[in-house]
Amino acid sequence: xxxxxxxxxxxxxxxxxxxxxxxxxxxxxxxxxxxxxxxxxxxxxxxxxxxxxxxxxxxxxxxxxxxxxxxxxxxxxxxxxxxxxxxxxxxxxxxxxxxxxxxxxxxxxxxxxxxxxxxxxxxxxxxxxxxxxxxxxxxxxxxxxxxxxxxxxxxxxxxxxxxxxxxxxxxxxxxxxxxxxxxxxxxxxxxxxxxxxxxxxxxxxxxxxxxxxxxxxxxxxxxxxxxxxxxxxxxxxxxxxxxxxxxxxxxxxxxxxxxxxxxxxxxxxxxxxxxxxxxxxxxxxxxxxxxxxxxxxxxxxxxxxxxxxxxxxxxxxxxxxxxxxxxxxxxxxxxxxxxxxxxxxxxxxxxxxxxxxxxxxxxxxxxxxxxxxxxxxxxxxxxxxxxxxxxxxxxxxxxxxxxxxxxxxxxxxxxxxxxxxxxxxxxxxxxxxxxxxxxxxxxxxxxxxxxxxxxxxxxxxxxxxxxxxxxxxxxxxxxxxxxxxxxxxxxxxxxxxxxxxxxxxxxxxxxxxxxxxxxxxxxxxxxxxxxxxxxxxxxxxxxxxxxxxxxxxxxxxxxxxxxxxxxxxxxxxxxxxxxxxxxxxxxxxxxxxxxxxxxxxxxxxxxxxxxxxxxxxxxxxxxxxxxxxxxxxxxxxxxxxxxxxxxxxxxxxxxxxxxxxxxxxxxxxxxxxxxxxxxxxxxxxxxxxxxxxxxxxxxxxxxxxxxxxxxxxxxxxxxxxxxxxxxxxxxxxxxxxxxxxxxxxxxxxxxxxxxxxxxxxxxxxxxxxxxxxxxxxxxxxxxxxxxxxxxxxxxxxxxxxxxxxxxxxxxxxxxxxxxxxxxxxxxxxxxxxxxxxxxxxxxxxxxxxxxxxxxxxxxxxxxxxxxx
Length: 868
What we know:
Layout lengths: L22 H8 L3 H6 L14 E4 L10 E4 L3 E5 L5 E8 L15 H13 L3 H8 L14 E7 L6 E8 L4 E8 L2 E10 L4 E8 L5 E8 L3 E7 L2 E7 L3 E2 L10 E2 L7 E10 L2 E5 L2 E7 L1 E10 L8 H4 L3 H12 L4 H16 L3 E3 L5 H5 L2 H7 L5 H18 L25 E2 L3 H5 L13 H22 L9 E2 L16 H4 L4 H16 L2 H21 L1 E3 L5 E3 L9 E2 L5 E2 L6 H21 L4 H9 L7 E2 L40 H14 L5 H13 L3 H11 L15 E2 L5 E2 L6 H14 E2 L5 E3 L10 E8 L3 E8 L2 E9 L3 E7 L4 E3 L4 E3 L18 E2 L14 E7 L3 E6 L1
Parallel strand pairs: 26-37, 30-34
Antiparallel strand pairs: 1-6, 2-3, 3-4, 4-5, 5-10, 6-7, 7-8, 8-9, 9-18, 10-17, 11-12, 12-15, 13-14, 15-18, 16-17, 19-31, 20-21, 22-23, 24-25, 27-28, 29-30, 31-32, 32-33, 33-39, 34-38, 35-39, 36-38
Helix pairs in contact: 3-4, 3-12, 10-21, 12-14, 12-15, 14-15, 14-16, 15-16, 15-17, 19-20, 19-21
């Protein structure tokens, strides 16, 4: 990261339109019967019980990574749940340091031929040194807005304390007793009403007494405006990354740095007194605290301090609108909005004992067993919950910590790290039935293309557009590193645009909106492909390779003991080049486009250098066959073509598939949190469900450490946040994606059902997973074998199903044994060149996979049922 590292029929939308809800779920929600929804996930049978989708604790949070996250996409709150003092740590997703700037390096283009020549001559350390001269500045930092502090008069000697986050409703709750009185708190982050709302109550009249204030770690002050308490502040002009040891890391200036505001009001049946910086409530039984937040951010190209929006006008309007509703109305509106998304997917991976389910979550994680299937279920749905909470249409994309950050100098600036972490955030968006939550990332790709075209031109003399290792709110696209202080192992990697463009294709592949593909996605994809084509050079063997090229954050050893990063044709860059060009070519076929870029792709792809296999039988990571700096490195970027790419599959190239498996074996099963999550996805693609499950269990280790660890140490914190350590949200999203991949895959010419089911989940069911081609899938299995599949088709066309057991088609539809290429264009496959490798290399046997393929004709809006 940063410097040192690393519905039954969902509808696509122009950027993304919300999928529809299932009739059953609409009935449930209309009746307000959310507990009934959660009950669908409860275990069957008297001996075992699966808990509802709740994170429960018997004590307050002692540190930030124990607090409970709430979010409405734009605003976030971490709820600590203290007895005598509640703290809500607050974030707004547009609150960043800095502003738009010129980050391109005008001298970079002249250095490019020198680097290429050094690489061609095998002078890799010298190429690294030259690459430093292509760097630009560091990105800016995502910032915390502040805190809401609520101090109660009753002290902290409470009984029967319980703290809960309900994933089904998106509500955090605190409950405790003081003598005969019961005190409760309910907190929501409302998307419909754009406020953080907290309801405080006591069941004994007049005993609710508290004071409330706002604070910020940035330059800010509070004042009273009528019955509101207002916090106004200014963001820094610049914040140095947390790994830079400088004397003045946080700098303010009059001409840079945005304005921000938080506004607090209290609605109560008691008395409210105001004083400077404080609101005090007495003689109350209940009180609702409403918090609105806004910044002056007005787009990445505008200077927010001068041409920004008025945050005061925004917060005033938000508070005025929210006050028109009482607490129960606010709560119901928020619940229905949240459940519309959250309830689309249900999952049951198995049960646990009632005693285990009753234990607080932190105790369960600490005591184990982490292979409890209900914990896997909870982690899966938690990832979906977090994506709903931090990524909605119109908001900023989820950053390195999603939405939640309490530090002015957060780890790796809490920015966007696009050599995997930003992309991993959105791996579950399509398969886990949250397509509209994909919208902020897709919008960000469009915003990167214009500055990225300037970086391509200035730094490389290339067409199209690019972005590098990091970006931020202002959409920086140049390589970071403060004009030469950085390390090329992470800075000199220009493939971020092409990788991000994969999300454009995936959104189309799952949703099928050809108008959106033509209007929005195709031009962006074509631009990203053009840049990768302009990066290619001819190597000594006559193949085309990207140069310069790195394998992000991992170096190779030179014969003299030195380490280097820059070569030509790393496996990752070859895989991304193939991926973006293949996606563009397939999109052009869908749209009937024949243009200069498709003609060029047709010429280039056959000349792209094939992958190489090492003497160990693994995929060669770099453009040169040298030992790795760290055989167990957290990044395994050379396996991009296995996942999230679709180039390496058992049907496209068994040799590459075996080499990918060998590569992952050599990396081992340890790693940072997000690395473990990626491995779950990779092993699922390798059809090894038991290995994927082993990694999932490892990811559920409880971690207390919040300092930086670059190897091992991965797991989860007590609030289930992913632990790198420190906290990075990509591991949460990667885990959810990994479970999707274990149950349903659709990247290899067919709809694979239970392709990587582990023995640890012998029975279960899942509803609402999405697959490419507009299919939505419900599955049930017993004894480790599929029993029923219900597949809804939104787009129609042939549904080719690949299963481990023969299936029959029920409900009047007809099925047939599949043969030949899948006629469904969403399932087109593409030729893959045989690898270059050491003759006589022993290849491990491939795991046995699904062997039965059935074709079913579907029409839009219909469903088919398969039984075994």
